[in-house]
Request: fold
Amino acid sequence: MNINRKFFNQIAFIALALFAAVSLACSGQQMGGGGNTSSSGTIKISGTGSTFVKPMMDKWGSEFGKLNPNIQIDYSGTGSGAGIKGIQNRTVDFGGSDAAMTDDEMKQTTGGEIVHLPVVLGAVVLTYNLPDVKEPLKLTPELISDIFLGKIRKWNDPKLKAENPNLNLPDNDITPVFRADGSGTSDIFTDYLSKTVPEWKEKVGRTKNPQLPPGIGIGGKGNEGVMGQVKNTPNTIGYVELTFAKANNLPAAQIKNKAGNFVTADSSTVSKAAAAFADTMADDLRFEITNADGADAYPISGTVFMLVYKDQPDPVKGKALVDFLWWAINDGEQYVVDLHYAPLPESLVTKVDAKLMSITSGGKPLRQ
Amino acid sequence: MTEAATVHSKRRITNLVMTSLTAICAVFATTVLLIILGFIAYQGISSISWEFLTDTPKPVGEGGGIGNAIVGSAMMTLLAAIIGLPVGIAAGVYLAEFGKNWYGNTIRFIADTLIGVPSIIIGIFIYTVVVMPMGRQSGLAGGLALAIIMIPIVARTTEEMINLVPNSMREGALALGAPQWRVSWNIVLPAAMSGIATGAMLAIARITGETAPLLFTALNSRFYNFYYDQPMSSLTVQIYNFATGPFEVEHAMAWAATLLLVGFILFINIIVRYLTRKKH
Amino acid sequence: MAQSSTLGDKVYRTILFVAASSILLIVAAIFYMMVQSSMPTLQRFGIGFLWAREWNPSQELFGALPFIYGTVVSSLLALLIAVPISLGIAVFLVEQAPKKIARPIAFMIELLAAIPSVVYGLWGIFVLAPFIREYLGPVLQDNLGFLPIFQGRLTGIGMLTGGIILAIMITPIVTAVVRDVLEAVPNTQREAALALGATKWETTMIVLGNAASGIAGAVVLGLGRAVGETMAVTMVIGNSPQISASLFEPAYTIASVLAANFADATDEIYLSALIEMALVLFLVTVVINGLAKLLIMSVAGRANASKHT
Reply:
């Protein structure tokens, strides 16, 4: 009994000391946190979805936060599918997706009409892990389709060599890496291949959840997951957003576009793809820019949409959200190219601005 | 004669080989532990700095830290303990004092089942019953998910510890005319308290390491968050995001965060070990 | 005085009863939620869902077999590796090592169980997967490459990596239960065997034989842990819904598909298919845990069985 008491006291002391340490640490950090300090005036805006745009959103959120210390933009990269589900179920204030919502998905919302707001353009690149190949690989849509359908299984396959005569392609098995979660990057990728390769259209089609034939590939979660698999595993090839390849110093293949040229993905070739569609854009801004016309247009280009309800439930948060998005596409553009995305063409910015003006709360417009 | 001798030496050789094999198994397993821990320490130590421990995540390449994840983990663990400990201990006392019947057996079996339920399923459950109605992911939801994991563990340890209390103590007090609840509350529970407390500490260590139930419930956050109604970052989810990502700086941060988390968990385990050893 | 004490007893008992019943309530609610949410697939695909091989959410093809296969094979692989090692450790600790050595080793093995799943995953990605790709895989292919299970590409990510990680994770629990079971075998058995001239190992075999059902319980319990493991597996198994003979190929488990796709399953039928798999996993863990409990109890008695289940 005595021993027990003493022993219990010891534990109680340790527990108390731990809690004291934790709470001390908390309060210390609160002071040190500076601009992040929570106060009653802080407006928290949460978004989730596309991992494609996550680095951009982090940068925008951080820069916007410096200008507006009372607004916290909190975006977590969970995949475009999760972004759509998040906004449908209203577990977040906005969703991010690289694929426009389908009509079916638009019907399943719980808060009325959803507005699609394109904020940035980007390229989906084919990145690969071949340590001995120094020059960029050249790929045609047919080759990509054959690789991901398992018809080309070796890096030194004659079909690959035919387009890349100068490259020292090894006699190794190819391991394609695809997205295991519902993904807008997959949507852009499969949309492109469905437009260019009939066999792909028939076997896989355009989808956020592509399924490769068995025995072909490895699945990764998120752009980061695919990138991680490619980076860590030799002889792999995967499709990711350009920033992810650049950040890792991994190569991006040149892709043969509609005009027949092999094009490197960068901000300008993506902008050219978007420019080709400027006149034919749908009024609700649900569009895609894959397989564009134009000599220098990068063919696997895509748009990132922010998904917000047209009528915002909370006027204060709604206003902060609209202001943030307005800032992002107008002033935030300066950070776009550094992160290897492409800014929206001028004509499109005007259209998005108009959409932002139409967002209301309780019937009143949030921005005049 | 020679035949018997060979049989005999064969038996001795078998004995020697097999007994050394079992020792090798033990050495092998401890080596694996040391390799894992050593690797974590080696990879993690270089990225730990004051900034890393106190800052929030920044855009890639701008540094940043896991301060908010530490706070988030601590807050959700605290909430889970506030709910899980009283409920778990009370349930454990019930099982020990009144649970020697069919209902007690049922609860016992169900509690063991709940301990075995994959934690991802508990995450899905909380998403359905808390996140959806509340309209957002939150530290509350994360803490509740952890509490559900904690309750059956605490309940079963508590029961076990109370069963260790000698019946003579109980009978003595009852003979003096004390009501049953007083005996249970003032005599039996304090006697078992040291064991219950160590069990509670181990349960806390266990839930601090949980990732799967937080993915859909607490989500993640880039900011310090001191309110339970908002999405909350945690060390484990942050490690998962860093680890599966492509950026080398983030991999280094994953190792450093891991060092911190594993350090905390091992610290609790060692403390518990030290204290319980004294008792014997 | 007498009355107030009965009132106190009643209140006390009620509070405890409510707390204990909350466990029942939580499990009932989890079960109800899962049955409710998996109704659409149950009605549409029936029991055939479990052995349909095609998984393609975009075409509304939902077959659970690749996930069940991945879960079962990765768990069996883990048992195959972990059980002999755990038996060896437990025998060493109980039958051979002096207490002074046994204690710290036992503690270190318990620490293996304390390391979080996500940490095993991290270690798996950066240490185990490259090790399998560069060293273990080539050795296996050179020597046993004629077996289909060791053929194919070597990426380091796949079923084998998942199985090994699981093996490390379940070793402590299997070891701990086997230890308890062995300790519950009366010493008279050992003394009798030794007195008859048996070697130490022969004595151990007799003890193991008598503890067989308890050891079986430990194995089943390890299986229960392995099938539900999520994070570590999802980080190294390759997340590809396929049924491949090769252990080097990627696979998928029920728990990892839940982690990867639950957050983005927008279609009701897709979500329902995922939750039906969660339900299957839930029922399997219930059965496994029940079975393990019965087996362990038959040898080690109630107290020990309760310690680990």
User: Anything to note?
Assistant: Residues 157 and 315 of chain A are 59 Å apart (CA to CA). Residues 1-5, 18-39 of chain A have pLDDT under 50 and may be disordered. Chain A touches chain C at residues 78-85, 88, 105, 108, 173, 175, 180-183, 205, 207-212, 214-215, 217-221, 228-229, 232-236 (CB under 8 Å).
